[in-house]
Design goal:
Low-confidence stretches: none
CATH superfamily of the largest domain: Hypothetical protein af1432
CATH architecture of the largest domain: Orthogonal Bundle
Mean pLDDT: 92
CATH class of the largest domain: Mainly Alpha
Largest sheet: none
Helix content: 55-70%
Structural class: mainly alpha
Number of domains: 2
Length: 295
C-alpha cells in the first residue's frame, strides 16, 4: 500500500527521536510561551514548504517529505549551542546531520535502526552544509530548511523583543513583503521559477536570500540578548560530557554497550545529543545539584 519513501516517512514519524524534537531548542532556550518554535515545529514547517515546492516542480513528494521530517533528528539539546560543545569535546567531532543518519541507521529501534532508503539518508546527511545531496529532493530540502528558519526566527525574535518589525531592513520589507507569509511565498515562488535541471533561484532572489541570512546571523543568531543563556547551556553539556566519559557505567544500557565496544566518546555523544532540553537540565541537577535530606 505504501511506497518505499512513504514507509521511510512513517518510520521517522513513529520513532522516539522524532518525538523528542518537541522539547529541543530552535533558537531561544527554554522559552516561556507556547508560540515559540521548537525543533519539531521547525521540522513540520520545513516539511510543508518542501512539499509545496516538490509538488509544483513535479518531483517526488514522498521522498521530499521523508528527508524533511528526518533532517534534524540528530540535533542536540540547546540547539547549535549544544552541538558546538560536543563538536569541540568529542575526538570524533559532532555534526548534527551526520548524527541524524547515525540515529536512523544505528540507534533507533533498539539498535536495529529504521532501515531508511539510501536517498533519504543522503538527503538528511547533506541538508545543512558542504556537498549537495545527490537528488533534487535532497537539494530542495536544504533550501526549504533555510527558508523556514530564516522566516520563523524573525517571528520568534520579534515576539521575544530581540528585534522589532522596523529593524527588518527596508529592502526586505519592500521586495520580499511585510509578513512572514509574504517572505516565504516569495522564496517558494522563486525556487519554482528558477529550478530546472537543478534546484535554484533567479539571481536577484538568491541575493536577497543570502542577504537575509547574513542579516539574521548578525541581528539574532549572534545577538547577546538572544544568546544570554548560552554560557549556562554550554556548561551543562560540558559537565555532562565529562561526567559520562569518566563514568561510562552510568550510561543507560544501550549506550553503555557502545561504550564497552571501546568507543566511550561516541556513546556519550549519542546519549547527550538525544536528550531534550529539559531532560538534559534534569539530568544535570540529579548529578551535580545537592538535594535536601530525605527528598
Amino acid at each position: 500500500m505504501r511506497t518505499e519513501y512513504q514507509r521511510d516517512r512513517d518510520r521517522i514519524i513513529h520513532c522516539k527521536s522524532f518525538r523528542r524534537l518537541t522539547h529541543k531548542t530552535q533558537v531561544f532556550l527554554s522559552p516561556e510561551g507556547d508560540h515559540y518554535r521548537t525543533r519539531l515545529t521547525h521540522t513540520l514547517e520545513v516539511c510543508q514548504i518542501a512539499r509545496t515546492i516538490a509538488q509544483a516542480l513535479r518531483i517526488n513528494e514522498d521522498l521530499t517529505e521523508a528527508i524533511a521530517l528526518g533532517h534534524d533528528l540528530g540535533h542536540t539539546p540547546f540547539g547549535h549551542t549544544g552541538e558546538d560543545v560536543l563538536n569541540q569535546l568529542s575526538p570524533h567531532g559532532y555534526i548534527h546531520a551526520q548524527q541524524s543518519v547515525r540515529i536512523a541507521q544505528r540507534l533507533e529501534n533498539g539498535g536495529k535502526g529504521l532501515n531508511l532508503t539510501w536517498e533519504v539518508r543522503d538527503g538528511i546527511l547533506h541538508h545543512s552544509s558542504g556537498t549537495a545531496a545527490s537528488t533534487l529532493e535532497g537539494r530542495l530540502v536544504r533550501y526549504a530548511d533555510k527558508i523556514a528558519y530564516l522566516n520563523h526566527d524573525i517571528d520568534d525574535a520579534i515576539r521575544a523583543g530581540v528585534m522589532t518589525h522596523e529593524d527588518i531592513p527596508a529592502v526586505f520589507r519592500k521586495e520580499l513583503g511585510p509578513t512572514k507569509s509574504d517572505r516565504i511565498t516569495f522564496f517558494v515562488s522563486a525556487l519554482v521559477e528558477g529550478s530546472g535541471q537543478d534546484i535554484a533561484m533567479p539571481d536577484r532572489a538568491q541575493q536577497l536570500y543570502e542577504e537575509l541570512r547574513d542579516f539574521m546571523f548578525s541581528s539574532v543568531y549572534t545577538n547577546p540578548a538572544a544568546k544570554k543563556e548560552d554560557e549556562k547551556a554550554k556548561m551543562v553539556v560540558h559537565r555532562l560530557y565529562e561526567y559520562y566519559t569518566e563514568n561510562p557505567d552510568a550510561l543507560p544500557p544501550e549506550y553503555a554497550a557502545i561504550a564497552l565496544g571501546s568507543d566511550v566518546p561516541r556513546a556519550v555523544c549519542d546519549y547527550i545529543s538525544g536528550m531534550s532540553d529539559r531532560f538534559c537540565i534534569s539530568t544535570f541537577e540529579d548529578i551535580f545539584v545537592p538535594r535536601s535530606w530525605g527528598s
